[in-house]
Design a protein that fits this description.
It contains six helices and eight strands. By secondary structure, it is of the alpha+beta class.
């Protein structure tokens, strides 16, 4: 659907569900995604999530695949504020074979292009946990700026961690 240099953002398919569950039940993947207690997803959890995806909601969920068609994760627009022209995005690469090889930054670049060119949005925001240094570097490489820090916002693996707020403005994207 939307193609970058290394990845394609496409619709989720029913045959992605089992692999998505496998990715999300990997603690190393899951710890970076949400503040909830990292409890394993069931196949029924993933099927319920999949059945809730809709083109008529104000969320835009994409499966992330390599250009040769291998499903490796997901990304999307998690919330939209049309009045103030801003969105919150998220991404995960579940297939560790594709970590630290440029697939994440290509996916973010492709998603950013979608947001600015198709949705006509002014500001893209995201949150990242302070221990996820690989993601912070990826977002900075894609032009995102640190806006602030929510101190000790997340309890994970016996400690409190900060949550970093980052954003990219439309004018910054077009002036780089």
């Amino acid at each position: 659907m939307y193609e970058g240099k290394l990845v394609r953002l496409r619709e989720y398919r029913k045959d992605d569900i089992e692999k998505a569950k496998e990715f999300l039940n990997d603690f190393e993947v899951r710890k970076n995604l949400q503040p909830a207690i990292p409890y394993p997803y069931t196949l029924e959890d993933e099927e319920k999530w999949y059945s809730g995806i809709s083109a008529v909601k104000d969320t835009y969920t994409f499966a992330l695949e390599t250009l040769d068609g291998r499903y490796i994760g997901g990304c999307g627009v998690n919330s939209v504020d049309w009045k103030n022209s801003k969105v919150v995005i998220g991404i995960f690469i579940g297939d560790k074979e594709y970590w630290s090889k440029g697939y994440g930054s290509d996916a973010i670049d492709t998603l950013v292009k979608f947001v600015f060119e198709e949705m006509n949005i002014n500001k893209i925001g995201l949150c990242v946990y302070s221990f996820n240094e690989r993601a912070v570097k990826c977002y900075e490489k894609c032009g995102f700026t640190r806006e602030g820090v929510l101190r000790e916002e997340l309890f994970r693996q016996g400690r409190y961690h900060d949550e970093i707020l980052m954003s990219l403005l439309r004018r910054e994207y077009y002036n780089k």
